[in-house]
Amino acid sequence: MEKTLYPLSEPLNGSIQIPGDKSISHRAIMFGSVAKGETIVSNFLPGADCLSTIDCFRKLGVQIDQQDTTVTISSEGFHSFKEPAEILDTGNSGTTTRLLTGLLAGSSIFAVIKGDESISKRPMGRVTNPLRKMGAIIHGREEAQFTPLAISGTKLQGINYTMPVASAQVKSAILLAGLHSESETVLQENVKTRDHTEKMMEQFGVDIKVVDNTIHLKPAGELHGRTIEVPGDISSAAFFLVAGAITPNSSIELKNVGLNDTRTGILDILQAMNATYKVTPQSVHSTEPVGTISIEYSALTGTTIDGSFIPRLIDEIPVIALMATQAVGKTIIKDAEELKVKETNRIDAVVTELKKLGATIEATEDGMIIEGPTPLHGGTIQTYGDHRIAMMASIASLISSDPITIDNYHCINVSYPTFFDHIEKLTTK
Ligand SMILES: O=C(O)C1=C[C@@H](OP(=O)(O)O)[C@@H](O)[C@H](O)C1
Ligand SMILES: C=C(OP(=O)(O)O)C(=O)O
């Protein structure tokens, strides 16, 4: 279904509460299901991806009551998972697909995992290969490189593994497999990726140690239920950080933003591009720090984004590219070939769609080059069913000279169901 978005005649103003972090919401459901007893999750993200995770664990026999952003999980623990009678449908969620594969590889049940058309094209060998080295029995399309995956849970051995790709999903799949394996798992990351799994393992009392970029995980006994407060998602906040920075005379405040430093690459880039913003930490002592970010419209300059920055802002690149169209000079994004294996090929999608709006932007092998500033005009944008492309285009419409129409805007529900409510809140006096 299409949606037409009209340019703003006024600046953005006011304050919004950023919804729960998608990565942490997935993990909260998974750890709450593995743990024996009751886990209560607050500020859960009721986005389609996290609802897919809930659905899969219900099919594994875990009792999960979800009331909007509060989830109560009652579980008999990992060893009581029931063999599901149905296929576990992970929808559009790469995180659910990969982490669940890792977790179930070390269980004592048989399960089949499949997702939507986009998931069927995303690489799964990156998890099934190391899991097989741990002893996992996984069959799947093209030698288990793609879904559907059929997993016959079995006893696993720990692994000593150097990550060939900078991916928190691969790391987490291996750690979830290592949780119930017979020996220690040691993982080496060349480039650090988001560490929510490690932090949640620590919270649940698992013996996990991180020294520089090496993780040591000892097999765990029974985990016990607890309460988990999910911070707001900085990847969702990013759309409004950019909206505030590029819409003339705007001044907005984003509350409850997660500030884990494996996720705050966008803030470093805002600084490098001369944006005017301020971060006020709320709870510096918690394992997942949270704060309020205020941002104002200002003149921006181009920058280069590469290397170890990339995993710290990988999902923000579409909207950063939009911001770069309004910055003076060249913005170069490189080392970001991972964008090609997301919900869609995000290098192609961003370049093709921003070009339609008048941007000067070219794709490269591992990223893109944007030359700014260019005024944006209206047009019809294809989302490719990718929530982040749909939100990028919606933010572009705030500053375009004419309306922008996007197809399949419902895909935004994957990570930010209240996105349009928040635009409205910041645009009405
Ligand atoms: O672990 C996670 O929760 C995620 C890791 C990233 O994917 P990769 O691990 O494939 O880089 C990110 O793009 C995704 O949105 C969520
Ligand atoms: C890539 C994303 O998610 P996933 O890999 O979980 O589908 C995303 O949210 O941008």
TrEMBL record:
Q: Name one GO cellular component term.
A: cytoplasm
Under catalytic activity, the entry for this protein gives: 3-phosphoshikimate + phosphoenolpyruvate = 5-O-(1-carboxyvinyl)-3-phosphoshikimate + phosphate
* InterPro entries per the UniProt record, alphabetical: Enolpyruvate_Tfrase_dom, Enolpyruvate_Tfrase_sf, EPSP_synthase, EPSP_synthase_CS, RNA3'P_cycl/enolpyr_Trfase_a/b
Binding of 3-phosphoshikimate: at which residues? 22-23, 27, 167, 169, 315, 342
- Judging by the UniProt lineage, the source's domain of life is Bacteria
Q: Which UniProt keywords apply?
A: Amino-acid biosynthesis, Aromatic amino acid biosynthesis, Cytoplasm, Transferase
- Its Enzyme Commission number? 2.5.1.19
Q: What class of enzyme is it?
A: transferase
Q: Where is the Enolpyruvate transferase domain?
A: 10-422
Stored CDD domains: EPSP_synthase
* Protein localization: Cytoplasm
Q: Name one GO molecular function term.
A: 3-phosphoshikimate 1-carboxyvinyltransferase activity
Per the UniProt entry, what are the Gene Ontology biological process annotations, in alphabetical order? amino acid biosynthetic process; aromatic amino acid family biosynthetic process; chorismate biosynthetic process
Recorded metabolic or biological pathway in which this protein acts: Metabolic intermediate biosynthesis; chorismate biosynthesis; chorismate from D-erythrose 4-phosphate and phosphoenolpyruvate: step 6/7
Please give the Pfam families that the UniProt record associates with this protein. EPSP_synthase
Where is phosphoenolpyruvate annotated to bind? 22, 94, 122, 169, 346, 388
**To which protein family does this belong?**
Belongs to the EPSP synthase family.
Q: Which PANTHER family match?
A: AROM/DEHYDROQUINATE SYNTHASE (PTHR21090), PENTAFUNCTIONAL AROM POLYPEPTIDE (PTHR21090:SF5)
Please give the subunit comment from the record: Monomer.
Function per UniProt: Catalyzes the transfer of the enolpyruvyl moiety of phosphoenolpyruvate (PEP) to the 5-hydroxyl of shikimate-3-phosphate (S3P) to produce enolpyruvyl shikimate-3-phosphate and inorganic phosphate.
**What is this protein's record name?**
3-phosphoshikimate 1-carboxyvinyltransferase
Protein's organism: Paenisporosarcina cavernae
